[in-house]
Structures are given as structure tokens and as C-alpha cells.
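Technical note accompanying the year-one report. For the benefit of new consortium partners, we illustrate the data format agreed upon in the data management plan: each record pairs a sequence with a C-alpha cell string. No post-processing was applied to the example shown here.
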Amino acid sequence: MSQRIDQLMLSMIEKGLDGLLVTDPKHVYYLTGFASDPHERFLGLLLERGEGPVLITPALDAEAAHAASSVQNIVTHSDTDNPYQVLKQQFKGSIGTLGIEKEQLTVARYEELTAVVSAKQYSDIGPLLRSMRVNKSPEEVKRMQHAIHLIEEVLRQGLKSVKAGVTEIEIVAELEYLMKKLGAEGPSFDTMVLSGPKTALPHGAPGDRKIQHGDLLMFDMGVYANGYASDITRTFAVGEISSELKSIYNAVLEANLQGIQAIKPGVTLASVDQAARDAIEKAGYGPYFLHRLGHGLGIDVHEYPSVHGNNSDLVQSGMIFTVEPGVYVAGLGGVRIEDDIFVTDNGVEVLTSYPKELITLEV
């Protein structure tokens, strides 16, 4: 954590900033080791040239912050304090340019900040933090492997609850119970279980539809463990499915394999998306691949990079992102197969290991 703060301080000086204010709770965790959800209360990490870092937390989080944070100087505020006045008191010198997270600060909070802190100008540090997070350290990869192992075990055990007549939401309840039982902090996003024609909805909501023979059954889920996320999608056959659904499955599987094969340092993210898209177009389902190929994964379940056809950024060693092609045919059904991949110096390591060949569930 201290190395990350040192790196950020160095970048701050290089960019001519006098101070930085980090307010995204995920970034506070990334830089200090202190994880919290402050809700509407103010949480911030202040860095100033020539000074030590200051962590400002709600008073009710003081004990947890002292136990977890690598930053020793912790200042608290009560619910009756103006936290921006507390922040102002921590500045040791005058601030010409203050770095802030524009995507995280609401307009209301920005106005509260600028009404009290008299910086001459403000600069967005979002890209700087993003560039730090994109290359995962060995420790981060280890944590993500653990989160992936957990969600794959949840899937293995959760499949036992799939029976004819059970509803999608009942399966979701079992999966989320297993997440906690097996040691996860919780789901990394809303767990999705869709069946039959509903699998044609890329972001469909689980409901009271009952599982039936001949359905496709799609699981899209992940967990947080030790602050890091996993994300996996697998699609199953419930008994015998139609030849058209099998054809869709094979097209998506080939796209998944081709997308992964295209990944290596130095190629564009757009070319990776295109490799998978080409496989689906060749199979005749091009118009039914409705979304980007994947997204970055780490302390957020969706983070940089975005793997889509217009992204000319280069694949870098140390990136972790998803490869999740899909085909969605309204009224019939859909298939998505998602893996989490780690870019190495020589190519790629697929972190997810759950089988991808079509599995038929006998119910």
C-alpha cells in the first residue's frame, strides 16, 4: 500500500499538482487497505506535496480504519461536523492545483468542496488511478484466483438445486447462500439466472419462471473475496435442446476460444473483440452479438479496459479482463460463455477453469 501511495505522490509531482484528494471508497481501499462503505458520509485520502498522507473517515469507522489502514494519520469527523472544514484544516500549505476524481464526485459534493477549500484549479486524477490499477500485482492476481475458485465452487454446488419446476429466483437464493457459506464477502453484482427464452435477454432479471425440459439455463455471477471480484457466465442445456440452440452454443464457444487466442501484449483491444465477432459472424449470428466482448476486472467488477471494437488501446501484460461473447435470439434463447483472463508477457492465462463444452443437466 505504501508503495502505491509513493507512486501516486511521484505522479502528482510530475503532473504539477499540489495535492490529491481520493474519495472513491474502492480507491481508498486500493491505496490504504481500509475497506468501507461510508454511505452518504465523507471519506477521503489527502496527499499533499512534502507531507504524509491523511485519511479522513467518519468517526464511527475510526476503530476499523486504525486496524486496517497503512496510513497512520487518521482524522475523523462526526455527523454534526462539516467534513470539508475538517479537510481544510489538514492542508499544510496553499493549494494551486488539487487533483480530484471527477467521475466519483457528484456536483453537490464538488460544490461543497470548492466552497471551503480554496484551490485555484482542479484536475481529474481518474486516468492516473486507472493506469495504476490496470497492471495487476502477483498479490492481486492471487486474490482474484481465490475469488474465481469460490464462484466456480458455488456453481458446482448450486447446480444441485436445478430441478424441473424450481424457479430462477429460488436458484439465485441458493447460489447467494452458498457464496457466504463458502467464504465470499458477497456477490460482486446481482446474481443472474435465466431460463428458456429469457436467456435472450443479456441483462434479464431472474423471476418466478420455472425451469423446464428443453430450456437453456444461463448463470452469470461473481463474488467479492478479499476485496477483489470474480465474474463468470456458463450456459447449460436442461435435457435435450433443439439443434438451433446447439448451433448457437457452438458459435459462442468458438468465439470465446478465438477471442482468447487473439490476446497478447501489443495488439489492440479492438482486434480481440473482432476475433470473437468474426467467429459469430461466420456462423451466421453476427446481428445477435449485442455487446462488447469484455471488461476489466479487479477491485471493481467493471473497470478499465473496455474490450470493444472501437478501442485502439493496446493489450498490456498484467491486465485482467473478461472474454464473454454471446448470441441472443428473441423468442428462442441465448448463450453467453464468460472467462476471466490474465495477460502475461507471452500471451494469456485463463483464470476460470469451469468446463465450457455444452453440459446437459438431467432434471
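Partners are asked to follow this layout when depositing records. The first strand starts at residue 19 and ends at 22.
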